[in-house]
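Worked problem 6 (solution included).
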Amino acid sequence: MDKELKKGILEMLVLNFLSQKTFYAYELNKKLNEVVETNESTTYAIFKKLVDKGFCEHFFEESSSGPMRKCYKITSLGREQLMNQKNAWKDISDKVNSLISE
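Solution. The predicted structure is:
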């Protein structure tokens, strides 16, 4: 899969997962890899980018089994971005599916 296309899809997937619940970084990375295979460095760069843009926030949480965990949660700006991305995805996928089914 094209690298840039994959990054865009991963950003939308991260926001989509975060719209459902708060995730700690490792758990979110694992969840993403169930959908699209990626490496940790790419995933963590996407997390940082989304935080920098204000689409999600991170915080640290105590762990009963070791060091503190870095957790992520979506912001209201992130929810807006997710809605925009979903609409754009639906629009382009409808057009592509229409073209390839002819």
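Discussion: Strands lie at 23-24, 56-61, 69-74.
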